[in-house]
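Predict the 3D structure for this chain.
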Amino acid sequence: MKISYILARNNKYNTMTTQEIIEFKNKLREGSVSFSYTKKNGDHRDAIGTLNMEMIPEEKHPKGIDMKINDDIIRYYDLNSDGWRSFHENQLIDYEK
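Done. Predicted structure below.
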């Protein structure tokens, strides 16, 4: 079990800096990223995700539906589950740097 996961599990907030979160979001836009986060129910989730539209099936591309934008919510396409997911940025535990 990763030490970062243990720390995040025992702490409501992660230990990621603002710069690390910005870097993570940029990596999602560039390609696929392996990462982990704490789900809302407290479970741990490992994921491989992206925001690179070239890696997302065309039928799964956003349809231009207006959504309330919250900068603290990280939305990503889960390449393993073949669907869109989201989580609050303070739930990010670790990512492949």
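Residues 18-30 form the longest helix (13 residues).
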